[in-house]
Write a structure and sequence with these properties.
About 50% of the residues lie in helices and about 10% in strands. The chain is mainly α. It has one domain (about 5-100): Winged helix-like DNA-binding domain superfamily/Winged helix DNA-binding domain (Arc Repressor Mutant, subunit A). Helix 2 crosses helix 4.
Length: about 120
């Protein structure tokens, strides 16, 4: 990952609502979540949700597919892993291979969206 790509991703995540959306999509797994369900889970009106999804998509952090009339959004795990690798490159002066933080979601797992935790 190049520095400008990392900055775009970090900039997109540096907003509370987008971070909540992204975390929900990461937890949901590769199957993704319908836009309407994201809005319901996070209590977001459609226009607000659309704006934040667009920003995450522009940053390359999420992708979108159509399933009938529904738009399904999912985290781009390869981009998330590239960002983690960029951030931890040469961690503690060691080679990157010793500090890998990689997420490999199970593609066929039936993952439910976890309930939100209050902070």
């Amino acid at each position: 990952m190049e520095k400008n790509e990392a900055l775009a991703a970090l900039g997109a995540l540096a907003q509370e609502t987008r971070l909540d959306i992204y975390r929900l999509l990461v937890q949901a797994g590769p199957a993704g979540v319908a836009a309407g369900r994201i809005g319901e889970e996070l209590g977001l009106p459609p226009a607000t949700l659309a704006f934040h999804l667009k920003e995450l998509k522009i940053a390359g952090l999420i992708g979108c597919t159509r399933n009938g009339r529904s738009l399904i959004y999912a985290a781009e795990y390869n981009v998330m892993n590239a960002l983690l690798l960029f951030l931890t490159e040469n961690c503690c002066g060691r080679p990157a291979s010793q500090c890998l933080a990689v997420c490999q979601p199970c593609a066929d797992a039936d993952l439910a969206i976890p309930k939100r935790r209050s902070v």
